[in-house]
Design brief:
Blueprint: E1 2-8, H1 12-26, E2 32-35, H2 40-46, H3 52-60, E3 63-68, H4 84-93, E4 98-104, H5 117-120, E5 124-130, E6 140-144, E7 150-154, H6 160-175, E8 180-185, H7 191-204, E9 211-216, H8 217-226, E10 233-236, H9 238-252, E11 259-263, E12 269-273, H10 290-302, H11 307-322, H12 336-346
Parallel strand pairs: 1-2, 1-3, 3-12, 5-10, 8-9, 8-10
Antiparallel strand pairs: 4-5, 4-11, 6-7, 11-12
Helix pairs in contact: 1-10, 1-12, 6-7, 8-9, 10-11, 11-12
Domain Isopropylmalate dehydrogenase-like: 2-343
GO biological process, one term: L-leucine biosynthetic process
Cofactor: Mg(2+); Mn(2+)
Length: 347
């Protein structure tokens, strides 16, 4: 089994190093690793954020463990050369359309949540975010209006096949959990969302055991703070899912805690924390590596079919937290390596 390691930019290398230590400690037979350049570091080294060598490793790999991309030095490059194109390109090139972002409170962290602890304590939800379409991948550009004004545009669209496959992913996830699926859209305004809602309802005919509800995204943002315990699985489009998952992370305690898997239906997957390269703390040892370590656990479970070591990683993270491991984002003083040490000790 081949695991691609793409640390990327900013805190990416710091957090992936800790996840790799945890994987090494498990001494799993038959796993090899290949490292690749992505993001701003790839641009600076070879002139492209997703070099062909990296894409080749990704295509051959069973799974990709990804840190983060993003570099303020690159923010004025032409868009196709920006670091973020690495993650967008991998999702598109490998057909990774189903982005699973679980948010569950570790009991010890309930008081780190931006919510009241008793509200935070109820959170156990999964955001199923579509990642191959939407306004992210439509035609975009800059033009000049007839009045001579600069105008930027990004076309938002979904076709029914794209909605159908992510709807199935949402229903299947709900079926394996508590049987509740909330589809989040903006059907009161957007045609894209009207089609989304129509197709989700059509697909629901195959899942009579799942209770389907619909919610507008603005209400969903509010409900996520008011009463997050009401949600089991949320299925939504690329942009709404991006925004709601960062919000969910703070309900859970920290953006440094949320892991993700992005799957293409053939077993191959990309695993990454939901956060970015955090340039404001890069190189300072302040990054919380737990989201990346938990992403490695998802990788073992979903792409390598190794549920037992995945459980062990998750139990070790829970024990490290119960034993008091806290990085600065969790109100503590431990650095990135010490957080890795705590997980290894618990393992
Ligand atoms: P960010 O997620 O990088 O950071 C937001 C805030 O959260 C910052 O204050 C940061 O210090 C903090 N934070 C993030 N991860 C943390 C961790 N593990 N431990 C402790 N604190 C953490 O978002 P941003 O600042 O909006 O974006 C920075 C760059 O990252 C941008 O270039 C953006 O495009 C990119 N980005 C990349 C990904 C990805 O690679 N998948 C995801 C999001 C953002
Ligand atoms: C994420 C990030 C990416 C996204 C960016 C960096 C392209 O915010 O993975 O959540 O918007 O999908
Ligand atoms: Mn995001």
């Amino acid at each position: 089994m081949l695991i691609a390691l793409f640390p990327g930019d900013g805190i990416g290398p710091e957090i992936v190093a800790q996840a790799k230590r945890v994987l090494d400690a498990l001494a799993i037979d038959g796993v090899t690793y290949e490292e690749g350049l992505v993001g701003g570091s790839a641009y600076k080294a070879v002139g492209h954020p997703l070099p062909p060598e990296t894409l080749d490793i990704a295509k051959r790999a069973d799974a990709i463990l990804f840190g983060a991309v993003g570099d303020p030095d690159c923010d004025s490059l032409e868009r196709h050369l920006r670091p973020e194109q690495a993650i967008l390109g991998l999702r598109k090139e490998l057909g990774l359309f189903s982005n699973l972002r679980p948010a569950k409170v570790f009991p010890e962290l309930a008081h780190e949540s931006a919510l009241k602890p008793e509200v935070a304590g109820s959170i156990d939800l999964l955001i199923v975010r579509e990642t191959n379409g939407d306004v992210y991948f439509g035609e975009k550009g800059m033009r000049t209006t007839v009045d001579g004004l600069r105008e930027g545009y990004d076309i938002m669209s979904y076709n029914e096949a794209e909605v159908r496959r992510i709807a199935h992913a949402g229903f299947q996830a709900a079926r394996a959990r508590r049987g509740k699926l909330c589809s989040v859209d903006k059907a009161n305004v957007l045609e894209t969302s009207q089609l989304w809602r129509d197709v989700v309802i059509e697909v629901s005919a195959e899942y009579s055991d799942v209770a389907l509800t619909h919610m507008y995204v603005d209400n969903a943002a509010m409900q996520l703070v008011r009463n997050p315990g009401q949600f089991d699985v949320i299925v939504t489009g690329n942009m709404f899912g991006d925004i709601l998952s960062d919000q969910a992370s703070m309900c859970v305690g920290s953006i440094g805690m949320l892991a993700s898997a992005t799957l293409n239906g053939s077993g191959q997957g990309l695993y990454e924390p939901i956060h970015g390269s955090a340039p404001d703390i890069a190189g300072q040892g302040k990054a919380n590596p737990l989201a990346t370590i938990l992403s490695a656990a998802m990788m073992l479970r979903y792409s390598l079919n190794l549920p037992e070591p995945a459980d062990r990683i998750e139990a070790a993270v829970a024990k490290a937290l119960a034993d008091g491991a806290r990085s600065p984002d969790l109100g503590g003083t431990m650095n990135t390596i010490e957080m890795g040490d705590a997980v290894l000790a618990a393992l």
